[in-house]
């Protein structure tokens, strides 16, 4: 699908533990009181990967449809076989074993994105719903008031900019700290652009100030300051092409 150097693939269930850990590494490791805890991030990404694999939303125009893209490292060995596992590995929990098998075969996810496709107004309304509806009830150690502010400000500026117009929302783009500076972020952005162009939809995202320039280089436009609600995130839009 993508013409970029780094191959973007759809995430699979075995990627979920890695995605949850990557989320914490990318966004929460440097904060004394993180927004998320690891089990919560893993559970959330698990929901998104399962929903993305459900063919029902893709078969019709209605329904908010997620897409989880990953870029893997080159550590995989497609000629690897289960016999390569030692006795200790065979004794591990099944879910962990499946993850290890996948990583051994195709490599470990090092960067990822979470996209939402909203093709009609009903689906768009779902983008502005409560964060608990998407991520689930907070776990022990999380501060709900902080999450209310974080997500509330983003959703407010998102709604102001896009209204009920069908569009795609790039909610998360992330890379593990060991994989930064390799162009993975740009590859994921171009992957999102290509998908949006196939569907003829505009793209919306909330950007950290320090990466606004990167998004501008791939077609995003910074929105007027008066629509901004979040102190730390800048609303940006890429106009629809193709379709």
Describe this structure in words.
Helix 9 (184-199) links the parallel strand 4 (167-175) and strand 5. 42% of the residues lie in helices and 18% in strands. It contains 10 helices and 7 strands. Strands 1-2-3-4-5-7-6 form a 7-stranded mixed β-sheet, with helices on both faces. The chain has helices at 16-28, 38-53, 55-58, 87-90, 94-106, 121-127, 131-135, 144-162, 184-199, 212-217; strands at 9-10, 65-72, 109-118, 167-175, 203-208, 221-222, 233-238. Helix 1 (16-28) crosses helix 2. It has one domain (9-73, 108-238): 3-Layer(aba) Sandwich (Aminopeptidase). The two termini are 15 Å apart. With 243 residues, it is of the alpha+beta class.
Defining traits:
seven-stranded mixed sheet; alpha+beta; Aminopeptidase; single chain; 243 residues
Helix coverage percent:
40-55%
Give the total of beta strands: 7
What's the alpha carbon Rg, rounded to whole Å? 18 Å
Assign the CATH architecture: 3-Layer(aba) Sandwich
CATH homologous superfamily (4th level) name: Gcn5-related N-acetyltransferase (GNAT)
Largest sheet: 7 strands, mixed
Largest sheet strand order: 1-2-3-4-5-7-6
Mean pLDDT: 85
- Helical stretch count? 10
Low-confidence stretches: 76-92
Q: Span from first to last CA?
A: 15 Å
- Listing every helix as H and every strand as E from the N terminus to the C terminus, the arrangement reads EHHHEHHEHHHEHEHEE
Q: Return the CATH topology.
A: Aminopeptidase
Structural class: alpha+beta
Tell me the fraction of residues in β-strands, as a range: 15-25%
Total count of domains? 1
Shape: globular
CATH class: Alpha Beta
Protein name: Acyl-CoA N-acyltransferase
GO molecular function: acyltransferase activity, transferring groups other than amino-acyl groups
Pfam family, one: Acetyltransf_1
Region (Disordered): 56-91
